[in-house]
Design a protein that fits this description.
Strand content: 5-15%
Radius of gyration: 22 Å
Number of domains: 2
Number of strands: 13
Oligomer: single chain
Order of helices and strands: EHHEHEHEHEHEHEEHHEEHEEEH
CATH class of the largest domain: Alpha Beta
Number of helices: 11
Strand order of the largest sheet: 2-8-7-6-5-3-4
Largest sheet: 7 strands, mixed
């Protein structure tokens, strides 16, 4: 594509150096950190190198600004957000921080990313019943009715856990409707939101979600090793902090105080010193998303995905992802008759197009700086010779 002409995208392509090298369509995998994220990371590291403790106070203050920005992105109060190193840690804080008794019950879909499933399966060692919502035979979707059937088939669950957006084929669950189902039976809703946050507008508190987590390196366009965890304030005291440390307590700078008085808010879960370099970088990308407007990003990405679905179908490929208004996301997975997804992904990489083999097909996941030319180049590469 001709990079010299103006391109109307919500996110400025100049902020994404990857565009000079690749047609990058793998934001559901690992995103290239934005230029401002890299600059923030470098700046924080240099200031720490040159100032040590002198820089720490300002760096912590910036961290609190990022906490507030992350809260706005999620649609939750700032006090209900904790920093974590990744989504897996956030899920572990919830699964292992709640008090469990033999016979307690968890409901979770069977086709989840391992980190969304394993923390709950591990509770079986404590006598917790983990019932799986079957996805086989449902094609591209997992309707709320499927959850309702499993929830109703046993005692009321303590937790229903699910991905907001399914990682393989991109089905988006209506979290507000699922939260109401949970509320009706007295269950808590834990949502892995990593595949939606940053590209699909979120309003987690209003929807009724109790716990949610995401890390920075996918749709948030930040680095690996840093993420965010939301804990609804009304259920915070039900979580036992698993890594209690100096940063967990209300008297964090009173070194002689041996009383264990938890800090107000979800920050009590953080324990020790934070990855401020990563937090600064994540914050820079969150600021980019906020400036562009997630509503605008979502409209753009949704249109790109619709163009992709139409182009692939017209060219003889099979689209495996749901395209309905309620179920669509930033993920489109497709297959080509007779083509191995791994080999097809490798062939596309050879043509400068980055995507991933997932869920029996090739997964495409554009972001707000991708263009129609990016999509058309992929469709041309895939469908050449298919008609």
């Amino acid at each position: 594509m001709d990079e010299t002409r103006a391109v109307d995208t919500p996110l400025d392509r100049a902020d994404f150096p990857v565009t000079a090298h690749w047609n990058y369509l793998n934001h559901a995998g690992t995103s290239p950190p934005s230029g401002p994220a890299v600059a923030a990371m470098h700046r924080c590291a240099v200031e720490a190198s040159e100032g040590g403790t002198v820089a720490f106070e300002a760096h912590e203050a910036r961290g609190e600004e990022v906490r507030a920005a992350a809260a706005r992105l999620m649609g939750v109060p700032t006090a209900d957000v904790a920093f974590v190193k990744n989504t897996t840690e956030g899920l572990g804080f919830v699964a292992n921080g709640l008090a469990w008794a033999p016979g307690d019950r968890v409901v979770v879909p069977d086709l989840e990313f391992p980190s969304t499933l394993y923390p709950w399966l591990a509770l079986r060692y404590q006598g917790v019943l983990v019932d799986l919502v079957p996805t086989s035979g449902r094609g591209r979707t997992l309707p709320i009715d499927a959850y309702a059937e499993v929830v109703a088939a046993g005692p009321p669950p303590k937790v229903v856990a699910a991905s907001w957006v399914q990682f393989g084929r991109g089905w988006r669950t209506d979290l507000a409707v699922l939260a109401q189902l949970c509320a009706d039976v007295g269950a808590l809703l834990c949502a892995d939101v990593i595949q939606g946050l940053g590209v699909v507008p979120a309003d987690l508190e209003a929807w009724g979600v109790d716990f949610a987590m995401a890390d920075s390196h996918k749709w948030l366009l930040g680095p690996l090793g840093v993420g965010i965890l939301y804990v609804r304030g009304s259920v915070l005291d039900r979580l036992r902090p698993l890594e209690p440390g100096w940063a967990s307590v209300a008297h964090r700078e009173d070194w002689d105080n041996l009383d264990l008085v938890w800090a107000d808010g979800a920050c009590r879960l953080e324990g020790g010193s934070a990855n401020l370099t990563g937090i600064h970088a994540m914050g820079a990308s969150i600021d980019l998303l906020a400036e562009a407007g997630v509503d605008r990003i979502w409209a753009h990405v949704s249109a790109l995905c619709e163009r992709l679905r139409e182009g692939l179908a017209a060219g003889g490929a099979t689209v495996l992802s749901d395209g309905s208004e309620a179920g669509r996301s930033g993920i489109v997975t497709f297959s080509v008759d007779g083509a191995d997804p791994v080999l097809l992904t490798a062939a596309l990489r050879g043509e400068g197009i980055v995507c991933a083999p997932r869920a029996g097909g090739v997964r495409i996941s554009p972001h707000g700086y991708n263009t129609t030319d990016d999509i058309d180049a992929l469709v041309t590469a895939v469908t050449a010779g298919q008609k």
